Structure formats: structure tokens, C-alpha cells
Write the C-alpha cells for this entry.
Amino acid sequence: MPELPEVEVVRRGLERWVAGRSVAAVEVLHPRAVRRHPGGGVDFAARLTGQTFDVPRRRGKYLWMPLAERDLSVLGHLGMSGQLLVQPEGAPDERHLRIRIRFADDLGTELRFVDQRTFGGLSLHDSVPGSDEGLPDVIAHIARDPLDPLFDEGAYHLALRARRTTVKRALLDQSLISGVGNIYADESLWRAKLHYERPTASLTRPKSTELLGHVRDVMTAALAVGGTSFDSLYVNVNGESGYFDRSLDAYGREDEPCRRCGTPMRRRPWMNRSSYFCPRCQRAPRASS
DNA sequence: CAAGGCTCCTGATAGC
DNA sequence: TGCTATCAGGAGCCTT
């Protein structure tokens, strides 16, 4: 379940092991892995073959590699279970191998997209005209993420206040702020002592500034853990670590004591998933009319 | 247009 | 033992 830090680890792995290499052949082994590609699997393979990867970029949970001509990019999303692996040619196929990309060089490795639940995938898209980073047009609506130097904090606060929604929904809305998933949302809200159903319009500027700080802290800490492991194993271009290794304060801790006050943590069904929170530190908002 | 709900998928696990 | 139900969840798409 990769969120921003895990995806950034993958991006760094691709930068090291894939950038600059040219594609010799592409095999699409499962149609769902290219379902966002407008032309389907055959077209994806045909158009990617012969292209050269430029330096990979990331926005939120999306990553893309501009092709050398710069007007076209390979877009990738890991979904819930996706992995990008650089493997030796001839290594046994992974059980959920979906796409294989062979290179036209003698380095002896290939790029594999492996994905059990097939929520993720790869696709080719035109770049937004004038984008110097080759931003794929289909993700132009995705907001910059909180680690992006160009993230507009003032605009973010104004947008939050204008919304008629609750704070966790807003954190997960990738058009407001990108890169935050269910896990880091719960962690950030716990740190900020905010209940997930708190209306965004009720957040003061200092409180939303504090929340944003916690989002950055949680992600930076996870990135510090994940960022250290990728280059020791060259096959590990897959975004492991992150929250898998770090201790979580909220997510998954139902009935365990709150690390601040000792009160048993609770889990509530929420949007077909779960929200974990401390009922004492994170008080439910008064029902509004 | 904004907000919220539905749906895609597979494997682990719980429950009977 | 073996079956079924439940859960995990990102984001496009649909409805209200």
C-alpha cells in the first residue's frame, strides 16, 4: 500500500537503474495493467519500444518517466500492491508479473511491473504542453504534494476553508494535496489531535498549518527509513519499508493504548475502509446543523 | 460544480 | 477439513 514515501523510493531506484536506457521489447502479460493506456496493450508495447527513458519524476503517488523526446511520458501508479523491479534477465517470473520491459543494452537486467491486485498500472500519455518535466496530461488535476518546493501552502489553506467536507476526506483528495493515503492520514490526524470527521471549514489557520506540518513529518520520517535500503539491493526498486518498518501511532492499533494518554484506540468503518483514532485525544466534533 | 458513494481485484484470515 | 464471508484500499466514474 504505497503512499508518497514508498513511491519516492521507487523513483530513486528507477533514476539509478533505468534512466537513460532504451527499450528493446515490451511484454504486456495482463490487460488490466495497461487499462489506463488509451490504445491497449499492443499499442503500449509498440509505442514504447525503441524509446529512451529520461529521469523519472513523481507527484504524490504518481510517477512517470519522460521519454527522450519529452512530449510523451510513461506514467505509473502502484495502486495497492504494485512493484517495479529491476531483475536479472532470466530470473524466474514473479507470480503476479504483469509487464516486462527489456532493454537494448548489455547490463543484463530488465524492468518488471508486478502487481497482485492489479489496481496499479503503466500507460503512455502526452505531456502537458509547456511542462518542463513532461507532466502527463491525465494527471494535470493532481495537486502538488507537501514535499514539493512549489506546494502552495496559502492556497491550500484557502481551499480547505472553502470546502464543505471533513478533514480526512480532504487529506485523501488528491486534487487538494497529493500523496496522502489512509495510513498517513490517520497518523497525521493523531499527531494533530484531530478527529477524522472534523469539518474543514472549522479549522483555524494555525491548526491546519500544524496538521500540514505533521503530514510532512510523518512522510519525511518514512522516507528516511525507506530511502536507506534501496541501493544495497539493486533488485529492491519496489518501495518496501516506509510504514512497514516504522512504528505507527494510530493505523492498525485498535484496542491498543494510545501512545499519548493510554486510552484504547478505536477503529471505525469509514468510506469502505477504516479510521483509527484515540477517542480521548481526538474528540468527535459536535454534530452541526 | 461539488460532494459522496460505488467499483475494480486477489489473497489472507476469521468464522462456522 | 473446507467452504464462505470479510477485509485491505487508490482513484476513476457515476449519481445526487
About this structure: The radius of gyration of chain A is 20 Å. Residues 228-245 of chain A have pLDDT under 50 and may be disordered. The longest helix of chain A spans residues 205-226.
